[in-house]
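Quick question: what would this complex look like in 3D?
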Amino acid sequence: MRYPPTVDIRLAAAVVAGRSAARASRLLRRGGGTALPGLVAERVDPAVVRKLALRFGRGAVTVTGTNGKTTASRALASILEASNVPFLHNREGSNLMRGIGSTLLLDRGIRAPHHDRLLLLEVDEATMPAATAAVAPRALAFTNLFRDQLDRYGEVDTVAAMWREALAAAPRDATLILNADDPSVAELALDWAGPVHWFGLDDEAFATTSAGAFDARWCRRCGSTFTYERRYFAHAGIWACPGCGRTRPAPDTAGTNVRLALDSASFDVPGIGELTMPLSGTYNVYNALAAIGLARVLGLPSEAIRQGVAAVAPAFGRQEAVRVDGRDVRLLLTKNPAGANEVLRLLATVAREAPDGNVNVAVLLNDRFADGQDVSWTWDVDYELLAGHVGRCWAGGDRGPDMALRLKYAGWPESSATVADPAALLDAILRDTPSGARIFVIPTYTAMLDFRAELVRRGAAGAFWERE
Amino acid sequence: MDTSGLQIRVAHLYPDVMNIYGDRGNVIALRYRCRARGIECAVVEITIGDPFVPAEFDLLLVGGGQDREQRRIADDLVEKGPAIRDAVESDMPVLAVCGGFQLFGHRYVDHQGGIIPGIGIFDLETHHPGPRADRSIGDVVLETDFGEIVGFENHGGRTYLGPGAVPFGTVVRGFGNNASDGSEGARYRNAIGTYLHGSVLPKNPALADALIHLALRHRYGREIELPPLDDATESRAHSSASAVAARRSRETPARS
Ligand SMILES: [Zn+2]
C-alpha cells in the first residue's frame, strides 16, 4: 500500500488492526456481527472514523429518525445507483458508531487517500451526536420522531435533545432535510441557521380519520398544544401552533395524489412527476420523500430519482411475501403503534376487497431489547380496526399470551391460538388454512427474525445476513 | 347476580396529555369487563379547562406523562384538586398511574429543584435524582391485597410515602417507589396510585374487577357481586408476564 508523504502512522495501524480483526472474526465464523473491526481500530486510533470519512471527496450524508431510516437510506442508495454516483453505505453494518467504523474499515476503496465517492450513513437516533461530530455531514435527513422503544432512550424529549446536540456539532453550511409534517422534527429548524430542505405531504384526500391514540406534541417555543388542520399518519400532518403562530412549513419536496396498494404506493412530486415504489404504507411514502429531498439537495436528476424510487428493495422482512406449502405468507414488520396502525389500516382495505371479507392474521410479539422490553405499546394500537374482518388468527412470539389478550379485548375471534415456537406456529398456520390461502404475519423485529429463520429452514425464503 | 342494565360513569382525566405508555389499555379492559356483564361503561374524557363534577362520576382514571406533560396539566389539576378530594372522600375509586400517581401526591421535585405542585390525595412526594441517575425501568411483580399484580415500570422519580399513605403493594420484582424501601404505589380510601403503566388492568383482572365493584357500590350504594368471567386468556398473560419478570431478574441479579 502507498500513503502520501504525510502518512498517518496511527491511522494506518488502526486500519490494519481493524481489518485483521475482521479476518479473524470471519475465520472464527462469527459472521453477522460487524462491530468488532470498528471497536479494535478505535482502540488504536480513536479518531479513525473522522479521518477515514474525510477521504470521501463527495462528503458524507446522514439519515436518521426513530422509524424509516433503513428504508429512506436504501431509497437514497437506489437513487445514487441510478445516478451512477459512487458511494459507500453502511447497509450491512450496524448503525451505531462501531458499526459505522467497521463499514469504513472493511471498504475496499478506503486506502486511497482521496476518492470521488459519497459516504451515506444510516445513523441510530442516539448515535447522531457522535456520528455528526465524526463525519461532518454536508446533509442530514431526519425522517420522524416517534415515541418508540422508550425503555431504550427514555423519552421523546431525550431524543430531540440528542438531535439538537448533533446539530451543534454539524458544519454550519450543511443542509437539513426535515419532515415538515412532524412538528418534533420541524422544530429542529429553530436551532439551525443554515439551509433547510422541507419534505411533506400535500394531499387533502389522503388525511387519516383514525380515532386511535396519538402522541400530542407541544410547541417548544411557547408551550401551546399544536392543532391539526389534518393528520396523515400519527402526529404527522398539517399542524399549527395557536400560541406563537408557527405553522407547518411549505414543503420543497411535496408528495401529492397518494395511492396505496398492498405491495406498492404511487404519488406525485411536483417538479419530478409521478413516482411508484414497490413498498406500501404512508410511512414509506414519507421515507421516499426524505430520500427524494436528500437526492435533490445533492443535485441528482429527476429521472434517476424516479428510477431509484421504483427500484428500492423492501428492507428485509419489513414487507415480504413467500410461498409456503401453497400458502402465500406475507411478513409485515411493526415496531410501534403508528406503524402497526398503518398495517392494520391497509389490512382492513385488503379484507374489504377479499371474497369472504376476511383476512388471516398472525401477530407475533417479542420483548427482547431490539423490540422494546415493555409490551404495553400494544394497547396503543388499533387492533379494533380489524375486528369483524379476521378469519383465522394466531398470537405468537415470546409474549404471545399478552398478544392473545390484546386481540381478545380488540374483538378478534377467540380461536386465537397462542403458539410461542415459530416452527409450531407455522405448523398451526398450515394446519388451519387451506392451500391457496393468504396469511399476513405481523411480527415485532426479533419475532420476525425467528419466524423468517423458520421459513429459511423450510426452504421458503432465502438465507440472509442482517443488521443487529 | 344479574348485573345487566347497570351503569358506571368513568372520568378519564387528561387522556390527550397523560397517555404515554399504553394507558388506553386500562380503559379498554374496563369497557370489556363491564360489557361482558351487561354493565354500561360510560367514559367521559376530561382535559385541561373542562370541569370535573364528582357527582357525575363513579370512577376516576389518570395516566402517565413526561415531565413537561406533568407541568402542562399541573395548574389545571391543582384547580380540580378540591373536587377530586371530595370524590375520594366520598369513596369514589381512583386509578392514578405513573405521572398521574406522582401528581396525586404533595409535589414532584425535578432534577433542577423545580417543584410541580400535586394535589395531596396521597401523603407522598417524589424527587428526581438527576439526569445521571438510572431510571427505574423493567418488569414488576407485586404482592397486594388484590393478589399478585404484574406490570412494567419506567420512571425517573423516586417516591417516598408519608405516614398517611399505605403502599399499593410490596415489591417482589422490580424497583417500586424508590428502589430502596420495597414499597410500590399508594392507597388512600378507594384511591390507588401505582407506577405500573399501560396494561395494568388487562393482565390483572382482579384489580380491574375490584375497581368496577367499587364503582358500582359508589353508584348504587350497595354491594353488587360481579358474575365471574372466563379469564383463561387473562391468566395466561398474567403468568407469562410473571415468568418473564422472574427470568429477567435472574439475568440481571443486581435488580432485586
Ligand atoms: Zn408556539
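Answer marked as accepted. Helices of chain B lie at 24-35, 67-89, 99-103, 200-203, 205-220, 232-251.
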